[in-house]
Every structure is written in structure tokens, then in C-alpha cells.
Write a structure and sequence with these properties.
This protein is an alpha/beta fold and 241 residues long. The protein has a single domain (8-235), classed as Rossmann fold (3-Layer(aba) Sandwich), CATH 3.40.50.11230. It has 11 helices and 7 strands. It has helices at residues 18-28, 37-44, 57-68, 85-88, 92-95, 106-116, 127-141, 150-155, 157-168, 195-199, 218-235; strands spanning 8-12, 31-35, 47-49, 52-54, 73-79, 98-103, 146-149. A 5-stranded parallel sheet has the order 2-5-1-6-7, with helices on both faces. A two-stranded antiparallel sheet has the order 3-4. The two termini are 33 Å apart. Residues 198-218 are annotated as: Disordered. It holds the Pfam family Sulfotransfer_5. This is Sulfotransferase family protein.
């Protein structure tokens, strides 16, 4: 009897369109999908997995691995605006999980993040810590992890998702690129951050909203300049659909 495929984690910089990607994974219907469990654990002190309440990163990873062994593969979407030091010290993250990454051009991601949370700290924009996680995975596994770009997801959705699925061992399901609009119960706590995805029925470029950007706001310019090198380092490994 062959072992179950490893659970997949998508580590994403905030506002990279990662919730749209999670929505695709939900629409497939063959995965157990968890929305930002480690972030919720950090913020709330607990998280529930399949009816099991956990209160530590170790217990949460235990629960994810047990759920994955139960018959359906687990997909986790997580963001890099929190730090996960105990998790990164758990070797099972590298030996028993497929770690993947999602980026987006800093100007657009930072502008979108600032519109939602103008009080965000420099670290909360997430590019630097995403690079820390990427380096930890690369160092532990000796392999370069898969990286996708949120802009590629919108401009070439089928090619990007197809290539991602191929790399992580999932069958590509083109029908999952469309869905019925609506909110999801599992992102209720962060609902306002996902309003665009809730209103959508698929991946499509939208007219940019009028927002502060690094071109118009000196603070955002400094934030973008700080995080640009980390984006560039990750973008060198970006998946070409």
C-alpha cells in the first residue's frame, strides 16, 4: 500500500491573490482545504481541525498530518505577516509537507495591503519573512521550492494552475477555475480581506482601484524599497506557465 501524498502548504505574501488560489483548490472538491490555520492560531490562540481544537504549532501540524492520512489530501494556504518560529524548527515541515510559495509585485501588493491595514508594520508586508521561510525549506530539503506569482495567476490562470498542479502531484481540473460567488465560513474572521474573491466567479483582471501607492506615498515607497530585494530573490525561481 503506497503512502498518502504529502499535504501541500502555499506560503503567500499578503495581498498576493492567494485567497483566489485557495478558492480554486476549494472548487476542486477533492481536497481538505485549510485557510490560514497558523495565522489564526497566532491571533486567537487556538484553531480547529476536523473538530479537534489545537493550541500549539506542533499540535496543529500533528492534526494536519493526521487529517491528510485520512483519505483526502490537505491543502493549506498561509500568509507571511506573522512569524512561525516553532513551526520552522519542526523538521516534519520539511520532510512530510510539500511547501510552495506565492509572490506578487511589491508595489501592487503593498498598495492593496495598505488600503486594508494602514497601520501595518514593515514586517507585516511579509516579503522578507516569506524569503526566510523559502530559505529554510531550501536549506532543509536541498531543493528549490515551487514559486508562483499572483499576477501570472490572473494573466495566465490555466497555464499557472496546470503547472502548479503538475509540480505538486494534483490532477488539473479546469472546471475549478470558475465558481459561484459568495463568502466562505472558514474565512469569516478575516472576511473583509476577501471581499473581492467573494464577489468573483473566477480569475480576471480588474480595473485598479484608486489607492495610495509607492509612487504617491513616501512611506509606501520606503516599504517597497525595503521589500523589493526579497521579492526579486523569490521571483528568480518563479514558475513559468
Amino acid at each position: 500500500m503506497s503512502a498518502a501524498p504529502k499535504p501541500i502548504v502555499l506560503w503567500a505574501v499578503p495581498r498576493s491573490r492567494s485567497t483566489a488560489f485557495l478558492r480554486i483548490m476549494l472548487e476542486r472538491g477533492d481536497l481538505e482545504v485549510l485557510h490560514e490555520p497558523f495565522s489564526y492560531l497566532q491571533a486567537d490562540g487556538h484553531f480547529e481541525v476536523a473538530g479537534r481544537r489545537v493550541t500549539s504549532p506542533t499540535a496543529l501540524l500533528d492534526a494536519i498530518l493526521e487529517l491528510n492520512a485520512g483519505g483526502r489530501r490537505v491543502f493549506v494556504k498561509e500568509t507571511s505577516d506573522y512569524t512561525y518560529t516553532p513551526l520552522l524548527q519542526d523538521e516534519r515541515l520539511y520532510t512530510e509537507v510539500v511547501n510552495t510559495f506565492m509572490i506578487r509585485e511589491p508595489g501592487a501588493a503593498i498598495s492593496s495591503h495598505y488600503a486594508m491595514n494602514p497601520g501595518a508594520t514593515l514586517d507585516e508586508y511579509g516579503f522578507e519573512y516569506l524569503h526566510v521561510i523559502f530559505d529554510a525549506v531550501r536549506s532543509a530539503t536541498g531543493e528549490i521550492p515551487l514559486v508562483i506569482d499572483g499576477d501570472d495567476l490572473v494573466s495566465s490562470p490555466e497555464a499557472t494552475v496546470r503547472a502548479y498542479c503538475e509540480r505538486v502531484g494534483l490532477a488539473f481540473k479546469p472546471e475549478a477555475l470558475r465558481w459561484d460567488p459568495g463568502r466562505r465560513a472558514n474565512w469569516r474572521r478575516t472576511d473583509r480581506w476577501h471581499a473581492e474573491v467573494a464577489r468573483s466567479s473566477g480569475l480576471e483582471a480588474r480595473t485598479p482601484q484608486r489607492r495610495e501607492t509607492p509612487d504617491t506615498n513616501p512611506h509606501l515607497r520606503r516599504v517597497a524599497q525595503y521589500h523589493q530585494p526579497f521579492y526579486d530573490a523569490l521571483a528568480r525561481h518563479r514558475l513559468a506557465g
